[in-house]
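As a warm-up, study this chain.
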Amino acid sequence: MKGLETCHHILSVMQSLGLPFFFLIETIGYGLTISKDRSKQTERQNKQNVAQKSLEELNRHGLSYAEKNNMKKAEECFRDAAEQGHVEAQHNLGCIYFSKRRTDEAVKWFQKAAEQGLADSQFMLAQIFFLGKGVEPNTREAAKWFQKAANQEIAEAQFFFGLCCYEGYGIKQNREEAVKWFQKASEQGETRAQYMVAICYQDGLGVKQNRKEGTKWFQKAAEQGEAMGAYGLGVCYLEGYGIEPDMTAAVKWFQKASEQDESCAQCALGYCYACGLGVMKDSAKAELLFKESITNLRIRAEEGDNEAQMWLGICYENGWSVKQDEDKAKAWLLAAEQENDRAQVALARYYLKVGDRKVAERWLRKAVKRDNPTAKKLLNELFPQDTEDETEKSVQLTEIGATIAHLQTALKTSDTEVVTWIRNAAEQGNPKAQCGLGICYWEGCGVTKDAAEMKKWFTKGIEGLRKGAESDDPEAQTLLAICYGKGYYVKADATLSLIWLRKAAGLNYSKAQLMLALMYLSEKEDLREGDRWLRKAIENGETDAEKYWKHFF
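Now compare it with the structure written out below.
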């Protein structure tokens, strides 16, 4: 219908940005028309009449002008009504300003309407702050307005507020609260929320783990065309999560998601072709799919998506569309494993391949605890008699003087006493302290620069540091991240540095959370992630984090 098309035209810029809009489409059709052959006298009379009309009629006139693509007149009508407090006109005026990229003015009018309780303005305002479209991202304001709109039953707002709760954007992370809002949005047919409900049930995040319930929600989302829902359902068929394994069905759903350019699904489909699962083995087809997915896969992995991290690790392990690299394979799989039992199984397979059965068993046991069917099968086949006690023990390392705090103090102040503490622990065989002492000799902090001593201590400690990092020692992970970030004894690699720092931060190590926040704020200019990790560091008692938060926010 013409009126609908006109209103869509008004906000074409907003649509191109992927933002929803509200323009009171239902008010079009009241029969308001403006004759093209008015005399000047008629125009004057009409202006007088418009001035006398109610605010509601002014708003309707604005919509009528908009329908005729007369945006100047539409803006005038909306402004006249908006300045007198008409809430819908305030929202419509905000929409016009936003389409002109005059974001400050748009925010001003959205805010006025939002404060009067208009849910659509509250949601619009929240998205502007969340995405940083023309303004500095502000997750606290975004979460506040998402919640207000969510309380008024706006399904998309419920989904986004759930996302804020799930990730800790602008508010304290609370997975139980997230599930509540995802379910509310899901009941209104919001497919992204249905996917998140499925994830929460599949992995036991905020609710008791229930594979069958998770599969049910994946199916709901998939059948409504949600790409990630189709991918998730494919994974359920591939792994046998809450449903009988069915490789043909897995391929079917991966194909549907791949057709929507879902990069994890493309990679999963490539995996099926590479291994001959549910389809005839076809290496050329597999390679084409890996090539199509790899760029987006890498972007998502670096943003912290654990599914993408797992697939990127598998690609590096096998040399699929990337140069084979065991260090990067292991690092990406380790980055993914925290909330991904399939990554834990992939790690177990990797360690079996390199002959380290003890570490492989430990990863299988972790995956079994998360109810992974493949892990149960492999554990029974490969380790039928073993007990859990030994394999569950993480590498225990002496802590005397081997903390990141001591190293930071040494680097800042060249305090010889602190370096002595680090040396004492290094001489007792602590790999973290050995590498820390190597850094002191590298930088000349508290000791004279000495390349030979630097090499000596790194040679002693680097493998132990890696093992500690791989055994979920967050301090070892942080130190390894520093080494990759600065190029201490290893080739500088910003990606590996970020992986290990995120891994440590995810284990609630406050110093890693602070370092990660500062990396996002300075190097990546990502205020949303910076705010999120600073908040986590503050919650975990990192005193410097509060100082930085006040500085940046």
